[in-house]
Automatic annotation (TrEMBL):
Keyword Transcription regulation: no
Record protein name field: Nuclease SbcCD subunit D
InterPro entries found in the cross-reference section: Calcineurin-like_PHP, DNA_Repair-Maintenance_Comp, Metallo-depent_PP-like, Mre11_N, SbcD, SbcD_C
Pfam families, A to Z: Metallophos, SbcD_C
Sequence ranges assigned to domain Calcineurin-like phosphoesterase in this UniProt record: 4-237
Subunit record text: Heterodimer of SbcC and SbcD.
NCBIfam families: sbcd
Length: 414
């Protein structure tokens, strides 16, 4: 009998823009690629561990991408089980709205925590059976969505207990126990979570702090040792957690910030037999749009490197590379952007960010100046100190002359 295969992905962020540039073309190609991998690897189940969309009110093209993907995946692979949980970027109610229709298609969407008639948490609706190629249940997935502080049970404060972490632990324990109780011999217990785990590598530019911030990162022992696999979302860098190979972030399929360019963007293929994880493989997602990051010590070096940048003029516009340029500036260079844009004019590349690294002391006036009487401060000295905060040395004569001209004009109007 063939083993059971699950594809784990998360953090699609459909509808995202990067410095004002829509990512729809990149997402569309990723979703086409994902459908091909489902067929190539005879995947039995797909788990999307949160942040399907980039915002609470996703734009129409993003919604269309998602529903088109679901329709195509089920049309091409009718027996494929799909489980989708909400992340912190998603609107839980909006994601769940089409659930009656999706459930009929074999797609389970979990946005919020279910409760019983008495208002207590009821994990039963979170437990999704996943079937193998023969139609037999091979795994039980406990589809836990992103937990907001309002979802958590009240926990009495104690010196050695973090109420938020303890609240999550209790909810997870209840959910996992429900899933474990449904598992028959030979069935794998698969868990999901959209959360920040202790020790995880965080992308500062694109990942929101959740559940009270990094001080409330969850310990890996929240997940039981008998879990065959834990499919996580939220962190965009693919990684295992706490040394446990079965507890994993799949990572995002595309770089969601410029600093994520080096990440191994991928989805995880996990294989199970007799209820246990027997293998896992990272499937790297092809990069539709290249990111070039140019970092140089001088403007001249940066401009020269931009001139030598190898670019493919045959690329369609939606595949033109993104470009970030960072330059060290020992003195002001007001025309730097114009110089960079002139070098790039007519070339198939999109400049997203031009950043400068200043070489001054960084000190405020209060840090750099000894206590003096305000009346004794000389405007030119204040200007020089402000200049040295960002740049090396003193302002050149032309800049000083412009300052004095401005100062004279202000003084004459007083």
């Amino acid at each position: 009998m063939r083993s059971f295969r699950l594809l784990h992905t998360a953090d699609w962020h459909l509808g995202q823009t990067l410095h004002g540039i829509p990512r729809d073309a990149e997402h569309e190609r990723f979703l086409d690629w994902l459908i091909d991998r489902i067929g190539e690897h005879d995947v039995d189940a797909l788990v999307i561990a949160g942040d399907v969309f980039d915002g609470q009110n996703p734009p129409i093209p993003a919604l269309a991408l998602f529903y088109r993907f679901v329709a195509r995946a089920k049309a091409l692979h009718p027996r494929l089980d799909i489980v989708v949980v909400a992340g912190n970027h998603d609107s839980a109610s909006r994601l769940e709205a089409p659930s009656p229709l999706m459930t009929e298609m074999g797609v389970r969407v979990i946005g919020t925590l279910p409760s019983s008639t008495d208002g207590m948490f009821d994990p039963s609706p979170l437990i999704v059976p996943l079937r193998d190629a023969d139609g037999a249940v091979a795994a039980r997935c406990v589809a836990m969505p992103y937990l907001r502080p309002s979802d958590l049970p009240a926990v009495e404060e104690a010196e050695d207990i973090d109420p938020l972490i303890e609240g999550v632990r209790r909810l997870y324990a209840q959910a996992w126990a429900g899933g474990r109780g449904r598992c028959r011999p030979g069935e794998a217990l698969i868990l999901t979570g959209h959360c920040y785990m202790r020790g995880g590598a965080l992308s500062e530019l694109s990942e929101r702090k959740i559940l009270g911030g990094n001080l409330h990162a969850l310990p890996v022992d929240i997940f039981p040792e008998d879990a065959a696999y834990v499919a996580l979302g939220h962190l965009h860098r693919a990684q295992a957690v706490g040394g446990r190979q079965e507890v994993r972030y799949s990572g995002s399929p595309i770089p969601l910030a410029l600093d994520e360019e080096p990440y191994p963007h991928q989805v995880m293929l996990a294989e199970f037999a007799a209820g246990r994880l027997v293998g896992h493989e990272a499937l790297r997602v092809p990069r539709h749009v290249t990111i070039h990051r140019v970092v140089e010590a001088t403007p001249e070096a940066a401009l020269e490197r931009l001139k030598r940048l190898e670019l493919d003029r045959a690329l369609p516009r939606d595949a033109w590379p993104f470009l970030e340029v960072t330059v060290t500036l020992p003195e002001p260079r007001p025309a730097l952007r114009d110089e960079v844009e002139a070098v790039l004019a007519g070339r198939p590349v999109r400049l997203l960010k031009l950043a400068v690294r200043l070489t001054g002391s960084g000190q405020t006036l209060g840090d750099s100046a000894p206590p003096v009487d305000l009346a004794s401060l000389d405007p030119e000295e204040v200007f020089r100190r402000l200049y040295r905060r960002s740049h090396e040395g003193d302002p050149d004569p032309d800049l000083l002359a412009a300052f004095h001209e401005l100062l004279t004009g202000v003084q004459e109007t007083m």
